[in-house]
Amino acid sequence: MAGLRAVIHGLHTKLGTVFTISIFGVKKVTFLVGPEAIPHFFQGSESEISQSNMYKITVPVFGQGVMYDVDLTTRSRQISFCIDAIKPMNLRSLVDAMAQEVEDYFAQWGQHGVVDLKHEIAHLILLITSRCLLGKHIRDNMFDQVAPLFNELFDNSFYLISFFFPHLPIPPHDRRDKYRAKLGDIIHEVVRSRRSSGLSENDVLQRLIESNTSNGRPLTESEIAGILVALVVAGQHTSSSNSIWTGACMLSDGGRNHMAAAMEEQKEIIGRHGERLDYCILQEMVTLHCCIKEALRLHPS
Question: What does the record give under GO molecular function (predicted)?
Fold first, then answer.
């Protein structure tokens, strides 16, 4: 596939921001490259540009019957569930759980040492994601089962060839399908258990269990599992990438002053609030927010 990447790069250089190529003579793909061309893809109507065709790579990952495997109306409804789940008003109540995960994780570290920042931050984000999206039961009792499955799903789903032929029978795709099936089984069982027990938790899983389709039907176990996997996959990538780059920039020689300023700001704000931390207090950390936004500007996820 290195050869294919070189061909695409060469065509971009030769033909400009919009060009179409034939992949192995069986599939035509149009490329939109750069800030002027890309908006046409995201802003075009479904009749002009079908995002579902582009994102067929996600169907084996998210599962059938969700997101880019359904019509636009159904997909829009499912996306609204995701947007609602991560609205600030819903995330406010999860700050305590997030902070506890962070404190517990770093409490295991010593005062000195060398770590792989990318690995550590990605693992921490997955811990937080499991607690806030999948629920306390999975986080406390099944994380050692779930985490490797998600990691394998991340590693085996998004090869360049997968974008063009997502169902090609190759070893990575076989592993992807195997791990996705196991994840589905785990989430299905948790949904069944929670529904039968009547137990209600403060997490995204609960909000999906209580959600209905446009015709009033409760979401099925498969739909809930698919939407959750979509949230985890999308959130894990963007959150990990932005967190890692923020840390890397602040730890660089040019970022040490910003690191010191952010830490001093946190000490002052948290001290003023009696060592308490909540959503509103986090919003006061302007220096930290500026560092995060600048890292995102320099290294978009």
Answer: heme binding; iron ion binding; monooxygenase activity; oxidoreductase activity, acting on paired donors, with incorporation or reduction of molecular oxygen
Write out the two tokens for 142: 């099944």
The answer to whether residues 232 and 139 touch, using CB atoms and an 8 Å cutoff, is no
pLDDT in tens, the chain (301 residues): 557 778 888 888 999 999 988 877 777 888 888 888 888 888 878 777 777 877 889 999 999 999 999 998 999 999 998 888 888 888 888 888 899 999 999 998 888 888 898 989 999 999 998 888 888 888 888 888 999 999 888 888 888 888 888 999 999 999 999 999 999 999 999 999 999 988 888 888 898 999 888 888 999 999 999 999 999 888 888 888 999 999 999 998 888 899 999 999 999 998 999 878 888 899 999 999 999 999 999 988 6
H helices within 112-170, ranges in order?
A: 117-129, 136-141, 143-157, 160-164
Three-state DSSP class for residue 301 = coil
Which domains can be identified in the chain, with CATH numbers? 1-49 (no CATH), 65-251 (1.10.630.10)
- Contact partners, residue 109, CB within 8 Å, separation at least 6: 115
Helix orientation angle between 143-157 and 221-251, rounded to the nearest 10 degrees: 80
Are the CB atoms for 85 and 219 separated by under 8 Å? no
Residue appearing with tokens 């269990």: 209
H helix or E strand, kind and range, residue 285: none
11 sits in which H/E element: helix 2-15
The closest of 226, 219, 220, 218 to 183, measured between CA atoms, is: 226
- Per-residue H/E/C for 197-227: HCCCCCCHHHHHHCCECCCCCECCHHHHHHH
What is the C-alpha separation between 300 and 247, in angstroms, rounded? Answer: 14
What backbone torsions phi and psi does residue 29 show, to the nearest 5 degrees?
-130, 130
Sign of CA dihedral 61, 63, 69, 73: negative
